[in-house]
Amino acid sequence: MYSSVQGIDLRLLHIFVTIAQCKGFSAAQASLNMNQSIISSSMAMLETRLGYRLCDRGRSGFRLTEEGKRILKSALELFSSMDNFVAQVRGLSGKLFGQLSIGLLDSTLTLQDAHIYKTVARFYKRNQDVCLQLSIKSPTELEQDILNGQLHAAIAYTSHRLVGLKYINLFTEKVSIYCGKDHPLFNRARVSTQDILQAKWVKRGYLMPSNLVPLALPDDNMTASAHQMEGVALMILAGTHLGYLPEHYAKTWEEKGEMRVLNPQTLSYEAQHCLIFHQTRPRNEALDAFIDDVLTEHKVTHPTRHTAHK
């Protein structure tokens, strides 16, 4: 059992966290700049020091053991606390330091009410030496990454509220059904809901918010999927599938006559985008500053600050 944490322990824990985040030894080689034999021996050393296995690896693939999941959570909290400590100490000079990991959704640059790049510009005008890391992921992945400590905050739409996370409404976007010019419904004067239900659909790689989407689509008609907005647009432009797209994103193709929106009065929905961060985890000064800048650029009143970071 540990009585103290040594430098070698931190190095081994860092290797383990990287392996877990990359979901495998091979995938972690590039991030760690190590060959697989060194990674394997490092993991064996850490497991020996701890006295139990952290992960199973073999023909069945890579997975964390229950002990590994707990150590990962604790290690992420440890590294976050260390980063916060360094940032707080260095921040006594009045300058912001540290690293900020921020999550975003794809294809928000063309949304008029989303002032994310203006937020970044405002943040970099501060007296700071902060490394800003941006990740583009699905809403569910962003929420989970905040909960497990891999992200400090995210801007994403959501139809629910997870326990432990703080959500602040920023802006909305209208999402509608589109078909391409080569689709059989494109030139039809009137398109019924039944026509739409019988068509083939491309779905996002993550589930659409079922309590917002005004149409229950048959699973049998979901014959294609895409994890990014561009993939959905590609399938629509091919004329083979219908799909949901934000109106601001589809506008260019719609104006060129390459896409058509279907029944927006009844089948469109509004997606609420929020600033999301952990409800109780201590925050450093850099994250507080970024949150301030997000809310300022979106003209949102700052709620009462959590005092855990003081």
From TrEMBL:
Question: A Pfam family in this protein?
Answer: LysR_substrate
CDD domains reported in the protein's UniProt record: PBP2_LTTR_substrate
Q: Which domain of life is it from?
A: Bacteria
SUPFAM superfamilies (UniProt xref): Periplasmic binding protein-like II, Winged helix' DNA-binding domain
Span-the-membrane segments of this chain are none
Q: Is Transcription regulation a UniProt keyword of this protein?
A: yes
Q: Which UniProt keywords apply?
A: DNA-binding, Transcription, Transcription regulation
In this chain the HTH lysR-type domain maps to 8-65
Similarity comment: family membership: Belongs to the LysR transcriptional regulatory family.
Name used for this protein in its record = LysR family transcriptional regulator
